[in-house]
Amino acid sequence: MRDSADMRRRRWAVRTGVVGIGAVTAVLALAVPAWAHVKVSGIDAVQAGSGVVTFRVPSESATASTTELLLTFPSATPFTSVDTQPKAGWTATVSRKPLARPQQGEDGSVINQYVSQVDFKATSPASAIPPGQFDMFNLSVGPFPDAPSVAFGALQTYSDGTTVNWDEQSADGVTEPVHPAPVLQLSPAAAGTPAPDGRAAAAAPGSPGSSWMDDAALGLGIVALLLSGITLAVVRNRNRTSARS
Question: Whole-model pTM?
Answer without folding.
Answer: 0.67
